[in-house]
Amino acid sequence: MNDLFLEALNSGNTSVSNLLLDNYQKLGMSNDEFLVYLQLQKESGRGNKFPEMHKVAQSIGFQDTDFYTILHSLETKKFLAVEANSYNFQMLYQKLSKLLEEQHTKEQNQHTENKTEELFNNIQQEFGRMLSPIEIEMINQWLKDDGYSSDLIQMALKEAVLNQAYSLKYMDRILLSWEKKNIKTPQQVQENLGVTRQKQQSSQTNNFVETRSKPKIPITKLTNKN
Hints:
Elements (H helix, E strand, L loop, with lengths): L2 H7 L8 H6 L7 H15 L7 H7 L4 H13 L4 E2 L4 E2 L1 H38 L5 H12 L5 H13 L5 H13 L5 H28 L13
Antiparallel strand pairs: 1-2
């Protein structure tokens, strides 16, 4: 290896978050602004927290005036805070964190809407008819007021269909019975149903054994002798 190549290897690396790479434009940061951010991060990684702006501008082929304009833009957008002896990008990371939270909330809301739409469609399909406004309001109360999840209501629907009871009132009784048992998830429903059915099978088996084990008592007809 030649000396120039060794010097290049020893010059260090600049680490950039993939989250920032994926979202910097969504935050409103331009490509030029992001390039300046990278250059300042590079200098910071070398221990130079407050590099000379002229040298940084030269390294990326910017005129000094253009570089200062971009730097001012980063401050105006509250991506950068110029402190006494350093450039602080903490506000940029806070904006990124807020953006990710908003995206997560949006995805959760969309998921909930999809699950709710699926629930209404399944109930109407199983009942073989459209739901009335009162029934729609009742389901919304389950979701919003009572806090039942769509998955839990789907389980109640399944139990109602198995018992050929195509009624929201029947489903409501099922949901209330689960609530009294502190059953809140489909997994807990499955576990409870498994225990219940096991008890039923055990009871039926015990009754069968008890019936089989009883001795047969002959019935004789008593006759009076004259």
